[in-house]
Specification:
The complex is a heterodimer of chains A (150) and B (479). Chain A is mainly α and 150 residues long. Chain A has seven helices and one strand, in the order ααβααααα. Chain B is globular and about 75 Å long. Chain B is mostly helical and 479 residues long. The two termini of chain B are 21 Å apart. Chain B folds into two domains: 391 residues, no CATH class; 70 residues, no CATH class. The chains are: A mainly alpha (150), B mainly alpha (479). At the A-B interface, helix 2, strand 1 and helix 3 of A face strand 1, helix 2, helix 6 and helix 7 of B.
């Protein structure tokens, strides 16, 4: 038997991309927020927003039903539920939803959070590309692995 | 040289000390609806948010408005504003001379000599300011605070344990306290509570960074000792919300009294040294006074606090301190006279604003002890803020909407912010982010005006850049 399906489930694609998306958002923020001495931190807000981008994108690689269920996730509880469903998935991860629909839905969620449109669109498109590329590479490396005899 | 008033990266909102201008990033996208919605919720004691972003907007506007009030309603804010008003033009004069020397005597040696002079001057200028970020607080001030603590407790504390008495941490603690006082105990649906819990890293000191916690932790320890019970025991006896409201009300009052810094004339008249009025030093003396209360004094103090008799509560606290601190009422009366004198010499709208706020503070002592949003309305204090979309404002008096007056106020506000930015830029402590570009009020702005000018050559041509034009007209050589 091969290990392809199992290793997709074990590889935490959400965790792997949340940090990168958070960095993208932080960089965009720092471009727009430069001065001040007394401030209120927003670092955890960025982590939350990064999850709001990465989780529905990964859902879109599982099924349109899962994507529609979590594309508008508004709370950490909902995002945690989505992550649990992603972790349970054992099939291959390939695009199941039209790219434009994924981008529009997630950008709309970021706009509700106050993120400027150009920042939101840039971050969502790049994260979608990064995740797609990452999954394709994983799939390819799994296919090229020699079969393990049980 | 490290930056004087440099930013904390990744903020939802911030207030640059002395700017009179709050800034909100896209993480706290305050808009025209935020203040009315938040105020209405605060007045009715009802949660005003229905989404993460609405909650963040409310918390951020409450938090940053406290800093704005600290600048406009306390002696610490008045003192620093006056230092900046005096020192910034002087500093720009030094910078101009420096640029001229470098333009006629090229070479590294000349550059080093002229820059080292201005850096020395910068250091002297900085030490006149009361507010400084933790990293720029001079060791001398930390040691003086350590000495005061030793005098109160008989024990020499490690400086790291005294971070709660550093000015940045004190001001942040007051902001956190006032946000909690405006939100604890509000009526909320389950959904609103869930949103609150998920975003509590913006208001719960336990989940915030060190500078928001340090003073709260220090005062909480003393509070427990004073009450003779731990917070857990007090919660069991009095209930969670009432005990925290009482604690944060006390904390906010103590900080406000600690920040009642006298004017230069008042200091001179009483022949008192400035260092005795360091807010950290005064705060530890106030806490020591609280600790030494007898049972009857404690009862009187608690009654004064319960009755919102802040002047009476301050009198009780000051009576227990050996150093002769003037009462806030006397300090602000003196500041009001100082501003009246300044206004007779200058029509600067920001001096007028400080003067107005000082008189309001005298008439409404509660606005110092509780720096809640409602005082913007009661005291008719305009709020100006920058968002990624430009400059916005709220007004609460007819004059705030006066078409003749408003442009003059805005001009003074932007000029002061321009000069503060240039001060830091020329002293080698930061990029110059043009407030005219941020306010969306300059047609000639370029991308670098908003992202930050790092070299003189990056100022746009004088024909379209009023900042370069003003500097060159004043004799600056920018290459």
């Amino acid at each position: 038997m091969t290990t392809s399906k199992k290793s997709h489930a074990k590889y935490d694609i959400v965790a792997a991309h949340e940090a990168a998306t958070k960095t993208m958002l932080r960089d965009a923020l720092e471009q727009k927020d430069r001065t001040g001495a007394l401030g209120l931190t927003g670092l955890e807000v960025l982590a939350f927003m990064a999850a709001k981008v990465v989780v529905p994108i990964v859902c879109s690689f599982i099924s349109s039903v899962l994507f529609n269920k979590y594309k508008g996730a508004e709370t950490k509880r909902e995002l945690a539920e989505a992550k649990a469903e992603i972790a349970k998935h054992e099939g291959p991860l390939t695009p199941q939803v039209d790219r434009a629909v994924v981008i529009d839905s997630i950008v709309a969620g970021l706009l509700r959070e106050g993120v400027p449109r150009e920042v939101a669109a840039g971050v969502v498109e790049r994260t979608l590309d990064d995740i797609g590329r990452d999954l394709a590479e994983k799939e390819l490396s799994e296919k090229n692995k020699p079969a393990v005899k049980g | 040289m490290s930056s004087l008033l440099q930013l904390h990266a990744g903020t939802a909102g911030n207030y640059r000390w002395g700017s009179h201008l709050t800034r909100f990033s896209f993480l706290g996208p305050v808009n025209g609806h935020t203040l009315p919605r938040t105020l209405a919720g605060s007045i009715n004691s009802q949660a005003s948010w229905n989404s993460n972003v609405e909650l963040r907007e409310s918390l951020v506007i409450m938090h940053e408005t406290v800093h704005y009030f600290q600048n406009l309603l306390t002696g610490t804010g008045y003192w620093d504003s006056e230092v900046m008003r005096r020192r910034v033009p002087e500093a720009l004069g030094y910078a101009r001379a420096e640029r001229r020397i470098e333009s006629v005597i090229p070479g590294e040696a000349a550059r080093r000599k002229s820059r080292s002079q201005s850096e020395r001057w910068m250091k002297e200028g900085i030490e006149e300011l009361i507010f400084l970020p933790n990293r720029n607080l001079p060791r001398r001030r930390k040691e003086q605070i350590g000495d005061a603590v030793e005098a109160c407790t008989g024990k020499r504390e490690d400086q790291r344990n005294l971070a709660g008495l550093w000015i940045e941490n004190i001001l942040e603690a007051e902001a956190v306290a006032n946000v909690l006082l405006q939100t604890l105990g509000t009526q909320a649906t389950d959904r609103q509570r869930e949103i609150w819990r998920e975003n509590n890293f913006l208001s719960n000191p336990d989940r915030m960074q060190g500078r928001y916690q340090a003073t709260i932790v220090l005062v909480a320890g003393i509070f427990e000792h004073w009450m003779g019970s731990t917070f857990a025991e007090m919660e069991a006896t009095y209930g969670r919300t009432p005990i925290y409201i009482f604690f944060y009300r006390l904390l906010a009052l103590l900080i406000d009294i600690a920040c009642a810094h006298p004017s230069p004339a008042h200091l001179a008249k009483r022949a008192q040294p400035m260092y005795e009025f360091d807010p950290g030093l005064k705060l530890i003396r106030l806490l020591a006074s609280l600790q030494r209360f007898t049972k009857s004094t404690a009862a009187l103090f608690q009654k004064a606090l319960g009755d919102k008799d802040y002047a009476g509560a301050e009198r009780i606290l000051l009576a227990g301190i050996a150093f002769d601190y003037a009462h806030s009422a006397e300090i602000y009366k003196d500041w009001a006279e100082y501003f009246a004198g300044q206004m007779s010499e200058s029509d600067d709208r920001l001096i007028r604003l400080r003067s107005h706020c000082c008189r309001m503070r005298i008439d409404n002592p509660g606005c110092g002890a509780s720096k809640s949003l409602g005082w913007l309305v009661v005291c008719r204090i305009p709020l100006f803020y920058l968002t990624p979309g430009g400059l916005q404002s709220y007004g609460f008096a007819a004059e705030h909407f006066d078409p003749a007056e408003e442009p003059l106020f805005l001009a003074d506000l932007l000029k002061m912010n321009r000069d503060l930015g240039l001060w830091e830029y020329f002293m080698g402590s930061g990029k110059f982010v043009c407030p005219l570009a941020e306010a969306d009020s300059c047609d000639g702005r370029t991308a670098v005006c908003e992202s930050g000018i790092e070299r003189d050559a990056q100022f746009p041509e004088a024909i379209c850049c009023s900042v370069r034009r003003s500097l060159e007209q004043a004799g600056f050589i920018l290459r």
